[in-house]
Write a structure and sequence with these properties.
One of its GO terms (biological process) is glutamyl-tRNA aminoacylation. The chain is of the alpha/beta class. It has 19 helices and 13 strands. It has 4 domains: 3-90 and 250-318, Rossmann fold; 93-247, HUPs (Rossmann fold, 3-Layer(aba) Sandwich); 336-379, Helicase, Ruva Protein, domain 3; 391-486, Arc Repressor Mutant, subunit A, CATH 1.10.10.
Amino acid sequence: MVKTRFAPSPTGYLHVGGLRTALYSYLFAKKHGGKFLLRIEDTDRERYVADGVANILKSLYWAGIVPDEGVTQETNGKTSEEGKNGPYTQSERLDIYKEYSLKLLETGHAYYCFCTSERLEKLRADQQARKMPTGYDGLCAKLDPAESKQKAESGEKHVMRLKMDKHGETVFNDLIRGEVRFKNELVDDQVLIKSDGFPTYHFAVVVDDHLMGITHIIRGEEWISSVPKHVQLYKYFGWEIPEMAHLPLLLNPDKSKLSKRQGDVAVEDYMKKGYLPEALVNFVAFLGWNPGTEKEMYSLEELIADFDLSHVGKTGGVFNLEKLDWYNKQYIKNLSNAQLVETAKPWLKEAGIYNPEALEKAVDLERERITTLAELPGAIQFVFDLPGYAPELLVWKKSSIEEVRNVLPQLVEFYTNLDDADFTKEKLEEQTKSWITEKGFSVGSVLWPMRVALSGQENSPGPFEIAAVLGKAETTNRLSVGLKKII
């Protein structure tokens, strides 16, 4: 059975690049009837953030990427584990790593290293000065194993290193890049167990992927240079090597590596701004993958059906915020008014706007104009609270304040005499335009001050749409307020 995994570090938030890795891993597993596992790699204790796991889970579940096994989230938001291959958090697996590291020592495939940080820094500087590849020189590999063991057991500070086979090449088939080759002589003896007893990524990832039954590893291209070390470990243990696919980087529009310096990179940032999960997932799916068709709008189920790693490119995907905005606008337009109100409820409540009877009509005014849910409260605020505005705003560019003083009183009288049932967009538009023709007014000289008086804004939806939402009483009241500003 196909089994993929996503194994983030809890360093504070889920990067959009991490979301893409998780998404592709999830899609691949589901496409092949397999399982998707979530493992937490928290062995880097210096960068560990206490609520990092909760933030990762929150972002993944929001996006609809729910693990079948591993670290999961209960309905109450608490973290739990699902599956028989746990623990699924690396800091809880130290005894397992110790067991397998000792096996490498016993077979002569690993050794204790007692080199100080000062020596290693000097070694690196010397190698750079001589324009040599940097890496550990294997000094401690020459120590007598019995002597090394005695020094380690006596408490002398040490790490454990992999004894890398320096002969020949490591050759593997990447599911995206094809055949990849590395000269083993250029691969140094990687640290497996650090001085604090925690494993390095390179050791733990191999042990965990094997014990958890991972068949396909999908991760970022920054890990591709580490594959020879991982392959060597698989060979030393006699384990089957999973299939591997290394995803291209995400890039800024200027083709630099996507980073927080040029904009938001956390999934949580887009959640807070009011991007819909469907939009972000659809957008992220296309950052490297191309289905080979003209279709752009995909549900998660449709992505599962069409996803193919052979359609993932080798070059970096450009994070184009304008395209993400386009996706979000499309998904907002696809919501009914009731769904839009429900989805935007957190932002509406925070802004103090919660009037169920009026909200559905109000959001219909702006649904075509907003890009994110966070923009909605500000966009419809005028419906519930007329903003202050300068009298000059009532004057159309081809009109005059005298003309406004002539038009508005007659418009107030006209609307006062209409029935409540006439306050629909269609009826208002039909009757008002007939009235304008009858009076001999220009359309702009009436509709401009009407729209400004109803919205208090220079830019807003059309006056008939607004009046239909406000109703007769509030429409005539706002027109009267506008009139008072210019008398």
